[in-house]
Amino acid sequence: MLTRKNRIIIFAILPGIIVLLFIMNLWYGSVSIGWFEVLTTLFSSTESNTSSQIIIMQYRLPQAITAMSVGIGLSVAGLLLQTTFSNPLAGPSVLGISAGASLGVALLVLLGGASGLQIGSLSMVLNDFTMFIAAFGGALVVLLIIIFVSGKIGNVVTVLIIGIMIGYLVSAIVGTLQFFSSSEDLHSFVLWGLGSFSKTTVTQSISIFSVTFLITIGSLFFVKPLNALLLGHRYAVSSGFNVKLMQSIFILIAGFLIALGTAFTGPIAFVGLAVPHIARTIFNTSNHSILLPAVILIGAALTLACNLLSKLPGYDASLPINAVTSMVGAPVVIWVIIKGRRMNIG
Amino acid sequence: MDTLLRTEKLITGHSVSKRKKVVLHNDLSLTIGKGELIALLGPNGAGKSTLLGTVTGMLPPLGGDVYYGEKNLAHMSNKEVAKEVALVLTDKIDDRYLTTYELVATGRYPYGSFIGKLTELDKDNINNAIDAVGAGELITRFFYTLSDGEKQKVLLARALAQDTPLILLDEPTAFIDSPGKVVIMNLLTKLVKDHNKTILLTTHDTELALSYASRLWLLGKDNTFVEGLPDELVKNGMINKLFDRQGVVFNRLTYRFEAEK
Prior knowledge:
The complex is a heterodimer of chains A (346) and B (261).
Chain A: H1 4-27, H2 35-43, H3 51-84, H4 97-115, H5 122-127, H6 129-152, H7 156-179, H8 183-194, H9 202-219, H10 223-229, H11 233-238, H12 243-265, H13 271-283, H14 288-310, H15 321-338, H16 340-343
Helix pairs in contact in A: 1-3, 1-14, 2-3, 3-9, 3-12, 3-13, 3-14, 4-6, 4-7, 4-8, 4-12, 6-7, 6-12, 9-12, 13-14, 13-15, 14-15
Chain B: E1 3-15, E2 21-28, E3 31-33, E4 37-41, H1 48-55, E5 63-68, E6 71-72, H2 78-82, E7 85-88, H3 100-105, H4 120-133, H5 148-161, E8 166-170, H6 178-194, E9 198-203, H7 206-212, E10 215-219, E11 225-228, H8 230-235, H9 238-243, E12 248-251, E13 256-259
């Protein structure tokens, strides 16, 4: 069992790792830039326009901030969902929220393209805020259905299954849209679906970070009801909580965080599912007063590391981020299942 | 004697749909007085858990009212109820990283704000509760590694930490070996005597209930309800009436069920 001292040491080390990974994300890429230049660009107050400075400030910085924010958001969402549903395999993709975001984007890109009712040229659509609105709208619709259903049906497991079914249904609609769309539209949709942290501007990335940060800090207010939920529904009620209200709040917070991230970056696989398990294993606890800060830090570090890995080939293009997060996350999930007897699955 | 809990014309049961209701017990007017140890007996499916659920607000009553002191349960928040009655349930706790201490600490959640650490008062309550059930050496263990008997003690400590006058236990002696059952029942008796607690428990152990309870509530499958002192109910044959089936009789001398000769 981990002592209090060991926990404090790990909590002290993690922010250092995050800062290091963050700076490495600014330093490493297809264009090589020296360490010294990275640091001077970051900390100098004067605006300058050398090409390496533009690369750092306009491309790599927003990418790193977005990666970190989405890592935090998805990890917190994953933890909230796993506790709310008492299910270690619950995660952002499970509730159909990611699929809802995909549907929103599919409607915009595929249907918009096919009907000729373009909001602009396709490249403009992709870079535009409309993309976010579409993804967020799609995610929100699924979220509202889930909240409506969870209000009608008390049983969270039923809600979980309905969430999974909505996910399949939405995927089927997306598939149908793909079938009837032009190859050009299809290409841009597939690109979105691969996920990328590099589609945000500096302003957007800072907005994502601020909103994620605020919601995440807000979730720290719910440590007690989250811990009470570990004992099951009836014990949580007997601890004095309005459990149905709490569950709705947690689903709403998680859904918002997932929608926010997915809208800007496309669906990012496995992070939300895997990080809570990594945190539980490292800190050997399920007490949310430790787990919540832990998933925030580990989530940020993991996505920064994945983003760095995606740049490894060193070509102009980087690997799709989903390929990297899946390669890192899938083994974690497999390990969870193998450890199944300990984790009580099934 | 002070009354802690009182029901007025309570109807327990389940709502199958908006129109269809299954009534288990009608017109229950019960009281629990301070310092009692009441055992609720009845065959499977008689509605013991439904009654526990209804008086704690987990299940809505089909009719009638429940009062804690002067307060009507229907107008109480979960937090208010949590300060009146603590529960020990049969629900399985699956989490594998929860320590015994952390589990007992959840008993303090009705007090204080959402956030905020445990206060000194909280810690005193937790430690006293752990001492009272004799679970001191278990506090750093993960809850799921404990034996069923140890788990029952720890859950009881959680209920004690909750600092309520009334504790309700759903089958506290199920899944526990015979000496363990006696340990639990002795502990409950001690809590009533030394810690000013009042206890209502459900059980299938008729023998234990008859020797430890100050009063019995008997629920029958045919919607009957009988209450009384243990000896009284043995003598007037109510116990036999409730449980006897073909080939099984209750021996009034040994307090045991035996095969019919």
